[in-house]
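QA checklist item 7 of 12: single-chain prediction sanity check.
[x] sequence parsed
[x] length recorded as 82
[x] structure emitted
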Amino acid sequence: MPERIYNFSAGPATLPYSVLEEAAQDIVNFKDKGIGLIEMSHRSKEFMRLPMKLKPWFVNCSQCRKIIRYFSSRAEPLHSSS
């Protein structure tokens, strides 16, 4: 593996290599289901489990609450019903 570059600026940060490896594997074969994460239906049982697993983490993450509040306060409708 080449030497890792660390990003200390605002925005995306450098992730641990093990996290990137697991994400890369799930893109190709999600949880050994034989289909990649970005290929499967957003209505599949496997995909629908993700928000339920992540919800407690988001609720307990103070920084995530700030981010959610920030974007919720600035949400604009995608289309108008006029």
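[x] summary fact logged: The chain has a mean pLDDT of 77.
[ ] second reviewer sign-off
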